[in-house]
Amino acid sequence: MRKIRSGTLAALFLGSILTTTPSLAAASSDSSTIREAALKDSIAWDFTEGLTTEVGPRPAGTPQEARARDWAVARLKALGFANVRAEPYTMPVWLRGHDEAHILSPFPQNLVLAALGNSASTPDKGIEGEIAYFPTLSDLEAAPDGSLKGKIAFVSHAMHATQDGSSYGYFGATRRQGPSIASKKGAIAILIRSIGTDNHRQPHTGVQMWAEGAKPIPAAALSVPDAEQLVRMVTRGQPVRLHLTLTSKMLKDQPSGNVIAEIPGSDPKAGVVVAACHLDSWDQGTGAIDDGAGCGIVAAAALQAGKAGTPRRTIRVLMAGAEEVGGNGGRAYYDAHGKEAHAMAMESDFGADRVWRVDFKLPQGHDALARRISAGLAPLGIGVSRVPAGGGSDIEPLVKAGIPVIDLQQDGSRYFDIHHTPDDTLDKIDPAQLRQNVAAWAVALFETANAPESLGVN
Questions:
Q1: Which domain holds residue 173?
Q2: Total tally of structural domains belonging to the chain
């Protein structure tokens, strides 16, 4: 997920772009040709369809993720990329077992839920406890230390849809931090309302990391309707007792890896343009919007950008592994390549709906490049924002190192209806919107890869 950042210099720079917008008529003929060709692209769909059909779910560090790497290497070679390879690393891996919950009293019934990544395991026979209800994460934080001893915490913080996905950062804290907070308060387990915006009976999983000093406890997300059902039960004033079974296990030193493919440039000193996505997915769906489509987009766009001939800069496609469980692939890429000259970093990891906005974080004095890119994007209905680009997990180490960033912001209005659920499947992708993404990316990659300006940290 991308991070929104602010800064006075960035705001002034972006303001200069916006105040000169009338002069944007000016996109190059090559950029226009590439954009129009990309609007007819079929590679992104074929890539996403093949990955989700022939591999399916791809949890980090599993044999399924390994099959995805092999599949991607073969497909990228067949598409004509150069220097295609997998770059392996190892990591600890959490594996889901059996997830089940049912109310024992006062209203016996089953609930639909999914364990969160890194959840502790219950015994095979499960555990029982009384529900301690907290409407928000702040309410859980305010609970006295030790007050949840022997109880199962339940937080019903409800997320709402936004076009730019900005609500995810705030409401996602319930998933990321809630389990550690509940553990430190003495809870034997925690349930949260799914961090999602749908009303379907399907839970949203996702990773959480245990804070220092927090003893791991079983942790799971209820589907939104089941969370609302549980709220109605507890507000009737009777103690609610629940039986919970979440079996899982942790494995050490399991193989994961990144996949790299390139369109070589003519000037090695000009730096590399990184176009990133992540190859892994959660286990419940087939990882179509998160992030099979992103990998299809960047691969197709790189090929479209290369149609005008050898670019000045190498375009490097990075299909990172293990993003879902903490960005392992992005860190492994930086460990292996961080000392190389990088001119630009971009990432597609917010589904496949249309790009509606472009954010820049470029070196001071590079407003001409931003104007050229904006001109090429304008016919696609993409506006320029005043928000500095922040990138995402797979390029985060590059961003922290000061590499320039461009964010092509996708419409996220329905993204969190599907994100991390069994419903993340190919049928949720609109082929026309997918092609618009490819066209936007092709323009940005073409202009950046061929820009005469000096970019990046060398």
A1: 107-239
A2: 2
